[in-house]
Amino acid sequence: MGQHQALPVAVYNLLTMPSNRAQRRFAYIIGALVTLISLFTVPFVRIQLGEMPAFQPAIFSTVVCFELITAYVIYSQFKISRQPAVLALFAGYLFSAGMSLVYILAFPRVFADNGLFNSGPQTSVWVYSLWHIGFPVAVLLYLRLEAKHRNVRYSSRKAKLAGWCTFFGTIILMTVFTLFTTHFVERLPTVLSQGQLSPAFVKFVGIPIVVLTFITLLIFYVRTKASTVTSTWLCVAILAMMLDVVIVLCGGGRFSLGWYVAKWNSFVCSNVVLAGMIYEFTKMYLNMADLFRKVKDSEYSYKVLLGESQQAERTISEQNTIIEQMLESSHEAIIMCDTVGRVIFANRRVELFFENPIHKGDCLFTYCEGMRASDTAFKSIVEAYFNQTIPPFLKRISRVSHSGEMKHYECYVNPIVDEGADTLRGHLFGFRDRTEEERIDEMKNEFVSIISHEIRTPLSSIMGFIEILATRNVTEDKRVKYVETIHKESMRLSNLINDFLDLQRLDSGRQVFHFQTLNTAHLVGEIVDQWQGKDNHEIELHVLDESLFIHGDEERLKQVFHNLISNSIKYSPDQSKIDVYVERENGRVHIKIQDYGLGIPAEALDKLFGRFYRVDNSDRRKIGGTGLGLSIVKEIVEAHHGKVLVESELGRGSIFTVQFDEHKEG
């Protein structure tokens, strides 16, 4: 390839995206506002305001940042278009950023009394002048190169060389100007006296800068017609720079109203083009996507446009990678097929769901072997869909995993059709794992079953005995017995409701714990006393250390131990002894409740603290319960940063151990 080549088709970049009427109207409104504010300020420019030391660094730090970012963005567009004119704009913004930085560093009383770099009182004025001369000159150079070399596109190697040359050339120019205005400032004419510009400076420097900037604005607008978003906002930037100089020339010393407005115009000048480019960036990618579609439509067009669309292809490739990564990170298994059912793409979750690798080109309905939808093989449904005998569907399917577990999924299918062309391109299948939802549904059904039983049983007793008391004459002994039964069943209902309320509060995070220092032996001893003798059970408390303290909510911990002791009594109907131990082990407080009753099957231990779980055993069915007690115990103990453990041997009893960190009193 030669050093440069002609451009038969425009390369899309941030500098060539066209603007519409609404965008131009908005830019003109901003320009008009800047102009009106500046003109309104002119009669009041000499009003002296207070000196704000932070104003200059704040404004110019943003100015320097905005202009450096703009320079970087423009250079990135040069790397796309490789047109020499773009380098002129890059140099202009790089020069403007550098001179802005020198200006603020050399400004008196910002970083040093007379500024840095051995500056003098005149340095910042001369830096300001060179800064405001350099930018319009760069814009004029851009217009000249654009007109003369519009169709020139550098080779990659020459573009890189030209970019580095422009960068270092601009740096050298800024360095020369900095040295010129600092070390040789005494040889320059005095242009600032007591904060006021000299008439000679206004006449021979200031007014020519205004004229130069105005001519630049006029030529730029006539040449570009503000036809792109970048050129539209660049007009506003040049206007703001011109008004900046005009206000300075109108008088008003440093820290006057005019001086502050001029700095505001510098801020506007630095950021409007960047804002326009950021907006244009979005539109550029829309055009890139459209260009890619056209390239894919025709192999011949693809070859012709290959050289001009390299950057677009790289960008689209990155976008495709992002889309693939998004599909790969999806919680759904996604398969894309062609029109006859051959796999085009499948994310990794497909293999995770169905434990079977899938490859590009595989037949989907063959892959679905072994899956079922209701009472029908899912394979036959997929095959019927590709044969166009059934419409797109949403089905629930199931399969048995390699471990023997039943897995449930929801499958939906959508045809992929070209928008507006009604051309079928393929089909998208999505599989959502709803095994957990099925488990929750089973839990809900179990919950309804348990609740209906647990509520109906005491409610039937209450209603039956109330009916007897209301309709029959009974002896005093029977009346007392019936009332006691009604009270007992009412308490059973109340405890059931309290369990649900406790669980709901723990789930929602609304359970409030009131922590305090508690003596473990006293706390457990009080509960043991309350259960002593219940259902003919003797509870023996073994306290190995009376001075063990824990940090917790007294009422909630009482609820824990009430529940555990109640369970021990309930599930040891043929035994009469319960042992409770309070001891220290490995620096932690351990409370153990040991019974000698039915025990728990080994396969049930890991499910014991789950909600609504009850051991399915004929010995336990008559005991009753909702299966919520131990789950509430676990929630409360873990809220205290503790653990609850269980050891059991079927037919020989169980040991429940609650562990807490020891809390030192005081």
UniProtKB/TrEMBL annotation:
Catalytically driven reaction(s): ATP + protein L-histidine = ADP + protein N-phospho-L-histidine
Matches recorded under SMART domains: HATPase_c (SM00387), HisKA (SM00388)
Matching InterPro entries: HATPase_C_sf, HATPase_dom, His_kinase_dom, HisK_dim/P_dom, HisK_dim/P_sf, MASE4, PAS-like_dom_sf, Sensor_HK_Regulatory
EC code: 2.7.13.3
Transmembrane segments: 26-49, 55-75, 87-106, 126-145, 161-180, 200-221, 233-255
Keywords: ATP-binding, Kinase, Membrane, Nucleotide-binding, Phosphoprotein, Transferase, Transmembrane, Transmembrane helix, Two-component regulatory system
One Pfam family in the UniProt entry: MASE4
Domain Histidine kinase residue range list: 450-664
UniProt keyword Chaperone present: no
PANTHER family, per database record: HISTIDINE KINASE 1, TWO-COMPONENT HISTIDINE KINASE
Protein's name according to its UniProt entry: histidine kinase
Organism annotation: Paenibacillus violae
